[in-house]
Structures are given as C-alpha cells and as structure tokens.
Design a protein that fits this description.
It is found in: Membrane. This protein catalyzes the committed step to the synthesis of the acidic phospholipids. It catalyses: a CDP-1,2-diacyl-sn-glycerol + sn-glycerol 3-phosphate = a 1,2-diacyl-sn-glycero-3-phospho-(1'-sn-glycero-3'-phosphate) + CMP + H(+). Its main location: membrane. The chain is mainly α. It has one domain (3-172): CDP-alcohol phosphotransferase transmembrane (TM) domain (Four Helix Bundle (Hemerythrin (Met), subunit A), Up-down Bundle), CATH 1.20.120.1760. 80% of the residues lie in helices and 0% in strands. The chain contains seven helices and no strands. It has helices at 3-27, 34-56, 62-85, 91-113, 122-139, 145-166, 168-172. It is globular.
Length: 174
C-alpha cells in the first residue's frame, strides 16, 4: 500500500478517534471542542496531502480514487452528526448534505461498473473545503459557523447537480 493510500486509511482511523474524543469532551461539559477540532483538522489535512502526493509521485490508484472521497464523506458525516447531536447544526442540513454524498457515491459506483472513474470536480473540492471550514467553526463555537455550513449546503447541492448533469449519460443507460 502506497503512502497516499495509507493516509486515506489513516483518515478513516482518525474519524473513529475524533468521535471518541468528541464524546469525552462532551461528557466533560465542553462547549468548544478543541481536541476534537485538532483531530478533525489533522484528518482533513490528510485529504489534501494524500491527493498531492498521489499526483506528484504518480501514485494514483483505483483504491485511492474510490476510498479517498469515501473517507472524506465518512469524516464529514461523523462530524455533522456529532454537531446535530449537540444542537450546533440543524438536522435538515446534515440530512441534505449526507443524501447528496450518497447519491454521488452511487453515481461513482455506476461509472465504475462501466470502467469509468469520476474524478472530483473543482466545485466538489470547493464544497469539501467549505464543509470542513464550517465544521471547524462550529466545533470551536465560532460565530457565523452556521452561515458557512449553509453556504456549504448550497455548494453541496450545486456540485451534486453538476456531477449528475455532466454524467447523465451513465444514468440513461440503466
């Protein structure tokens, strides 16, 4: 397993660690989740780093193309569910974002079944960065974090529509 793929697996492991630490901080009565935020930031940075290393060193693999976006989705979904649980984020927002992620994951699976790999678009990457920034702001109880998450929700749907529209031919063959 190459370094970028190891970083992707590390992000999945850090998601579990993030969740455990979040619950420990919540049990301690924290309203700002500093340690959880640090873990979330490290996990988020592995997303940038694994992609950078894979492209720089020509280590792009099918495993990485599939698992990297999946690991991102698992990390972001875990954080959003935790934020909903403590009342820092409305449930509808998490449901809409997670639903879009499922839809695009299914679209990627359809593409993969015909030998195609759907790479992340610029809008998809912007969506991910905005989601992560909003989550960090909410974890740290920074004002307007919910506004950033609202923007992330809009970008999430826009990029999802873009993926579906640009790859509609995959759906018409079903």
């Amino acid at each position: 397993m190459n370094t970028p793929n190891k970083l992707t697996v590390l992000r999945l492991i850090l998601t579990v660690v993030f969740t455990i630490v979040f619950y420990l901080e919540m049990a301690a009565g924290k309203t700002t989740f500093l340690i959880s935020t640090i873990i979330f930031c490290v996990a988020s940075f592995t997303d940038f780093l694994d992609g950078y290393l894979a492209r720089r060193d020509n280590l792009v693999t099918d495993f990485g193309k599939f698992m990297d976006p999946l690991a991102d989705k698992v990390l972001v979904a875990a954080a959003m569910i935790m934020l909903v649980e403590i009342g820092y984020m409305p449930g509808w927002m998490a449901i809409l974002i997670i639903s879009r992620e499922y839809a695009i994951t299914i679209l990627r699976a359809i593409a993969a079944s015909s030998g195609k790999v759907l790479a992340a678009s610029k809008n998809g990457k912007l969506k991910t960065v905005t989601q992560m920034l909003g989550i960090i702001m909410l974890l740290l109880n920074i004002p307007y974090g919910i506004v950033v998450m609202f923007i992330a929700t809009i970008l999430t749907f826009y990029s999802g529509f873009e993926y579906i529209y640009l790859n509609r031919h995959l759906l018409s063959n079903m």
